[in-house]
Design a protein that fits this description.
Distance between the termini: 64 Å
Helix content: 10-25%
Shape: elongated
Strand content: 15-25%
Radius of gyration: 32 Å
CATH topology of the largest domain: Rossmann fold
CATH superfamily of the largest domain: P-loop containing nucleotide triphosphate hydrolases
Number of domains: 3
Structural class: alpha/beta
CATH class of the largest domain: Alpha Beta
CATH architecture of the largest domain: 3-Layer(aba) Sandwich
Order of helices and strands: EEEEEEEEEEHEEHEHHEHHEHEEHEHHEE
Number of helices: 10
Largest sheet: 6 strands, mixed
Length: about 425
C-alpha cells in the first residue's frame, strides 16, 4: 500500500546582484546601475483531488526548484526562479526529518487546494546600486544570492472519512460496508482480507456521509503487530468510530475492551473518539439466544449497543442513522472549538542577530546578510571596509572583544577572512 513516501527537496538559489556602471554616450552622469538577482523558486506541496496515492514519490525521490537569475546592468533585475509544485492526495501529512532524529509536522493537507511551502527559495542578492552613498558613489560591491533550502520530507497519507469501522478481523466490517454502501470490499472467511482502507458513501434519507472500513487489528497492534500502524494511522482522520463486535465471540465485551486498549496505547486521542458500538451476527441463533446476556454485560460496562446483522441487513439502517447523528454532534463541537481559538500573528525579524563563536584559533561570525557580500576581486579594500563597518554597526566587534579577541587573531565571515587590528 503506497500511503507513505520519503523524498528530498531543494529550493532554488537566489541570483547574484550585479556590479555594473552606466556608460552611455551623451549621458553626462554615470554611476552604479547593477540590478538585483531574482529569488530562487520554492518547493510547494499541494493537496489535489486528482491524486489518490503517493506511488510516484516512491519512484522519484528528489525534486528541485529553479534558481533565480542574476541581475544585470541598467538596473535590470534577474528573473525569479520557477516554483515546483508537488501534488499529493487530500489527507497527506507533510513532515520534515530533522538531524536530531526528531520529526516536525509542517502541514496537514486535509482540504482540496491546501498547500505548504516546504523549501523556500533563496533571496536574490542586491546589486551595487544599493551600496552607493554620499562618500562612496561608485561601489564595486554587490551581494551573492542566498542558497536554497534542502530538506528531507516524509509524506504520509491518512484517509479522510466521517466514520470508520473498526474491530477484530472477521467481525463483519467488510460485510457492513457492502451492505450500507456501493463499495465492493473483499470478503472471505479468513483474517486480514482487507489490507488497506476501503471507502464508501452511505445515504441516510437525503443526506450522506463517507464510511471507511479500516483493516482489522489484533493485540499489540500499537507495536506494529499484524497490520499495526497501517491500521491505526488511518483512524486518526475519522470523526466517529463504528466499533463492530462479533456477537459469536466467547467474550464480546473483552474483544471490545482489547480494541480500545490498542487505540489508547497508540494514541490517547483515538480512544477518546465518539463510538457507536454494534454487535454483529444477530442472525445466528446462538447469538440471538445470548442477546439479553450480551446487552447486560455491555450495560454493566456503561456502553450502549445496537444489534445488527451485516449479512441480512437487520438493524443496519438504524445503525447508520445513529452514526450520522453522532457525526453531526461531533462536527458542531469541532466548529465551536475552532471559533473559540484566537490566532495571533508574530512577525519574524528581517535579519537574524549575528552569532559569534570561537573554533580553535579562529573567531567565526555567522551573519548571512554580510557573508554574501562580494567584490570585483581587483581591489577588495572597499569590500573589507564595508564588512567591518557593517559588523561594527551590528555589535559584532563588541562581542568579539567580550570573547577575548587579540590583535592578529583571525576573523572569518563566510568566505571572507581577515586579522583583528
Amino acid at each position: 500500500m503506497y500511503d507513505a513516501a520519503e523524498i528530498k527537496v531543494k529550493s532554488g538559489k537566489g541570483g547574484d546582484g550585479a556590479i555594473s556602471f552606466r556608460h552611455e554616450k551623451f549621458v553626462p552622469m554615470g554611476g552604479p546601475d547593477g540590478g538585483d538577482g531574482g529569488d530562487g523558486g520554492d518547493v510547494i506541496i499541494s493537496a489535489s483531488p486528482s491524486q489518490s496515492t503517493l506511488r510516484k514519490y516512491n519512484q522519484k525521490r528528489f525534486y528541485k526548484a529553479i534558481d533565480g537569475e542574476s541581475g544585470r546592468g541598467k538596473k535590470m533585475h534577474g528573473k525569479k526562479g520557477r516554483d515546483i509544485v508537488l501534488d499529493v492526495p487530500i489527507g497527506t501529512l507533510v513532515v520534515q526529518k530533522l538531524k536530531a532524529g526528531e520529526n516536525e509536522l509542517l502541514a496537514d493537507l486535509e482540504n482540496s487546494g491546501s498547500s505548504v511551502v516546504v523549501a523556500r527559495g533563496g533571496k536574490g542578492g542586491l546589486g551595487n546600486i544599493h551600496y552607493a552613498s554620499s562618500i562612496n558613489q561608485a561601489p564595486h560591491i554587490a551581494q551573492h544570492g542566498a542558497p536554497g533550502e534542502e530538506k528531507e520530507i516524509l509524506l504520509e497519507l491518512r484517509i479522510i472519512a466521517d466514520a470508520g469501522i473498526i474491530g477484530y478481523p472477521n467481525c463483519g466490517k467488510s460485510t457492513l460496508l457492502k451492505a450500507s454502501t456501493a463499495a465492493k470490499p473483499k470478503i472471505a472467511a479468513y483474517p486480514f482480507t482487507t489490507l488497506e482502507p476501503v471507502l464508501g458513501v452511505v445515504g441516510v434519507d437525503d443526506r450522506h456521509f463517507i464510511l471507511a472500513e479500516i483493516p482489522g487489528l489484533i493485540e499489540n497492534a500499537h507495536l506494529g503487530k499484524g497490520l499495526g500502524h497501517d491500521f491505526l494511522r488511518h483512524i486518526t482522520r475519522t470523526r466517529v468510530l463504528i466499533h463492530m463486535v462479533d456477537g459469536s465471540s466467547e467474550s464480546p465485551v473483552e474483544d471490545y475492551a482489547r480494541v480500545n486498549t490498542e487505540l489508547g496505547l497508540f494514541d490517547k486521542s483515538l480512544a477518546e473518539k465518539p463510538q457507536v458500538v454494534a454487535v454483529n451476527k444477530i442472525d445466528l441463533p446462538e447469538v440471538r439466544a445470548r442477546k439479553a446476556e450480551i446487552e447486560g454485560l455491555f450495560r454493566a460496562a456503561g456502553v450502549i449497543i445496537l444489534f445488527i446483522s451485516a449479512f441480512t441487513g437487520e438493524g443496519v439502517a438504524t445503525l447508520m442513522q445513529e452514526t450520522l447523528c453522532v457525526i453531526d454532534e461531533t462536527r458542531e463541537r469541532c466548529e465551536r472549538e475552532k471559533r473559540s481559538v484566537e490566532k495571533f500573528f508574530h512577525p519574524q525579524p528581517r535579519h537574524k542577530k549575528p552569532i559569534v563563536r570561537k573554533e580553535d584559533d579562529v573567531f567565526i561570525v555567522e551573519a548571512p546578510q554580510i557573508a554574501r557580500i562580494m567584490g570585483t576581486g581587483k581591489d577588495d579594500a572597499e569590500l573589507y571596509r564595508y564588512v567591518l563597518k557593517s559588523l561594527e554597526r551590528m555589535g559584532v566587534n563588541k562581542e568579539l572583544r567580550r570573547l577575548g579577541v587579540c590583535p592578529g587573531d583571525k576573523i572569518r565571515c563566510g568566505n571572507l577572512e581577515w586579522k583583528w587590528r
